Backbone:
């Protein structure tokens, strides 16, 4: 009898020990597994109502666990159609769509600023109203940010398409691997021109709200200002996976008071392109004054090294218009960059179509955009993890 009692006590002690070890293991695992951040998909809406359903489908098909969609409609002629799309998705059970209508047209920059203020997520994933998220994009973004909460701005690979998103014309991949960048001027300069396209950019919301400014309304580059401001003090992240694809189409800029006189709705004129580039340089100059940096000269150099892209936009406008555009850009400081002149004469003599074929070939061969100039490439996360494993 006494032995049976002792065996029972031993069994109870063993069960308690097992239960304690199991609880400890579960606690350890929960502490080791980072909590996924809440993501706000932020969509500045102006017209293009017919493209909103494919965008929303690309978001809701992701099944990300903690998500909201924030749409700020900027007083466009298609406001009723956009509102109808939102109502239709809410009736389908998507009650995590938060929809706002601006009383007056604020323009691209002002609308972006409101999106950050109205979002409630930890991070804002920015999407143009005719862009599409790629499958698995939000899981990748969320898991990387959960592992690296020090990141305030994330850039990514993205693609361009014309009519069919399944047929991507080109993919822009800035670096070969997913990498993290330390805070400071080097990272701010590296990210500067690489945040020009909105689709799939990620900003830590609290930082974006704290840096709010109207200084650059009408530049179309509020995201460039934000990235530069945040990255002087916080880490950046590059995601090598293709996160979003952008539709090649006609712009709607030029509707707000801040944009009128610079941009013409429905087309990118040479004057509009010059205004955009001047706007980027003005932002860099502001950073120099506000933070005692040397960003403008470095940004000018980086823009010049990759000036093919903004030269190519006007390459088919006729030689006299193209020549005037080239001379005006040269006056902004690009005339000191040899690649700027090489790109112009290549486009003028060989034609845009042949140059585009060469660019596509290079991208396919290199599997990334060629690195030109002294641009920092960050620390590969894969190599960093391998180094950590080797040390342990």
Residues:
């Amino acid at each position: 009898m006494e032995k049976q009692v002792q065996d029972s006590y031993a069994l109870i002690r063993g069960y308690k020990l097992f239960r304690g070890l199991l609880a400890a293991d579960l606690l350890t695992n929960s502490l080791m597994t980072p909590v996924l951040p809440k993501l706000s998909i932020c969509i500045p809406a102006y017209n293009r109502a017919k493209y909103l359903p494919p965008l929303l489908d690309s978001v809701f098909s992701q099944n990300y666990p903690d998500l909201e969609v924030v749409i700020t409609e900027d007083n466009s002629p298609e406001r009723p159609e956009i509102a109808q799309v939102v109502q239709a998705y809410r009736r389908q059970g998507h009650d995590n769509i938060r929809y706002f209508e601006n009383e007056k047209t604020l323009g691209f920059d002002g609308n972006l600023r409101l999106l950050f203020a109205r979002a409630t997520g930890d991070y804002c994933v920015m999407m143009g109203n005719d862009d599409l998220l790629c499958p698995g994009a939000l899981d990748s973004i969320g898991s990387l940010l959960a592992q690296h909460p020090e990141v305030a701005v994330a850039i990514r690979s993205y693609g361009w398409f014309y009519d069919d998103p399944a047929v991507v014309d080109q993919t822009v991949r800035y670096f070969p691997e997913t990498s993290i960048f330390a805070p400071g001027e080097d990272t701010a300069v590296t990210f500067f021109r690489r945040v020009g396209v909105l689709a799939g950019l990620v900003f830590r919301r609290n930082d974006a709200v704290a840096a709010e400014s109207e200084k650059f309304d009408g530049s179309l580059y509020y995201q460039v200002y934000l990235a530069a401001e945040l990255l002087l003090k916080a880490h950046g992240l590059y995601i090598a996976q293709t996160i979003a694809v952008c539709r090649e189409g006609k712009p709607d800029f030029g509707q707000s008071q801040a944009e009128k006189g610079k941009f013409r709705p429905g087309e990118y004129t040479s004057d509009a392109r010059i205004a955009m580039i001047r706007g980027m340089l003005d932002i860099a100059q502001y950073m120099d004054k506000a933070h005692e940096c040397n960003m403008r000269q470095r940004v000018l150099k980086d823009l010049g090294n990759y000036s093919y892209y903004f030269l190519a936009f006007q390459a088919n406008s006729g030689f006299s218009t193209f020549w005037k555009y080239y001379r005006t850009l040269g006056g902004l400081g690009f005339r000191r960059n040899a690649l700027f002149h090489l790109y112009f004469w290549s486009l003028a003599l060989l034609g845009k179509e042949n140059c585009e074929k060469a660019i596509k070939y290079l991208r396919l061969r290199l599997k990334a955009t060629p690195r030109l100039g002294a641009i920092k490439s960050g620390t590969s996360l894969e190599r960093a993890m391998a180094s950590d494993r080797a040390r342990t």
Summary: DSSP finds 15 helices and eleven strands in the chain. The chain has two domains: 39-247, 270-366.
